[in-house]
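Section 3.1: Structural characterization of target chains.
Under the original work plan, the team committed to producing a structural model for every single-chain target entering the pipeline before any wet-lab resources were allocated. The record below documents one such target. The sequence was received from the expression subgroup and is listed exactly as submitted; it comprises 389 residues.
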Amino acid sequence: MAATQAKLSKTAGKPIHCRAAVARKAGEPLVIEEVIVAPPKSCEVRIKIICTSLCHSDVTFWKLKDFPGCFPRILGHEAFGIVESVGENVQDLKEGDSVIPIFLPDCTECLDCTSKKSNNCSKFQFKVSPWILRDGTSRFTTVDGETLYHCLFVSSFAEYTVVDIANVTKIDPRVPPNRACLFSCGVSTGVGAALKTANVEQGSTVVIFGLGGIGLAVAEGSRICGASRIIGVDINTDKFEIGKQFGVTDFVNSNSHEDKPISQVINEMTNGGADYCFECVGMGTLVQEAYACCRKGWGKTIVVGVDKPGAILTFKSFDILHMGKTIMGSLFGGLKPKSDIPLLVKRYLDKELELDKFVTHEVSFQDINKAFDLLVEGKSLRCVIWMDK
């Protein structure tokens, strides 16, 4: 490690030329280019990315033609790396630290960050921005001086990136890089939604709408909590066999019940509704179906999926008052990055949280477009992209 730190320190304070996968047009293959990564400014660190994984949100931003889609851009927000250098006013991070960048800011100082009740930092409110967190500028340019946009304060599809300290969490170096990167977004979001937002109880019944990466992470979290029945709802029947590895006990194909609402099917299966219902697709209609099949009196509906901007949910006032159900959002699983991620890491190191089954593919950086193809075609849960492999 000492030799590595000595090597890293030679580049401190200087621009770094490296490779990045640049998205230049909506939906078109990324282009591997030489880019220049500026040194970190105050309260920033520059990270050497070791590996990154592809999240469905990256595909969403890649396809968007209108804002918050913008080009040219360096996508990517699930990653593991080593701190290459630090800017001024950085106290808790140093060169050589093992870290994961996380899109959700955690300043550790504001009312929300110091409370156990919230992970929604009020000093740095989360937003979808094309810039770095504090000063609204970019740390990326091409060799010709063209500015490149950031993505979710991370931009991990580059060999080096600059990230604000509010978006960086230290991680135990015992976790392999191709597993550590999973804690950056999807797995943490799903597992956290079950463990922290919902606080799933042992012996309870859970319904999960959408068995993609996040939905399966919810299943994993529910399994850890001891749920006795985990019902997966999806249109792809192949997801049931996959879901069994994560604790899914029952499967409902929503396309096979056109004669009745899916909520009615679930209510009949569960004798009146499930204890916890998770919407992991990002569709308002499914949120309402989830709410309709969570049990009256104590049922919780947890919204995890990201719907299109401006989407509106509609509920009857009578149902809200008389049914006593709860509906709640779960951004990043309700987790506080700097304090809760180490707890998930401990569960992994104790072999309680099983990460291996989430990684279905691994590719080299030059094959990053293959990772997009695999995810778009529904063949991959998480594809890990190695920078130097």
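DSSP finds eleven helices and 18 strands in the chain.
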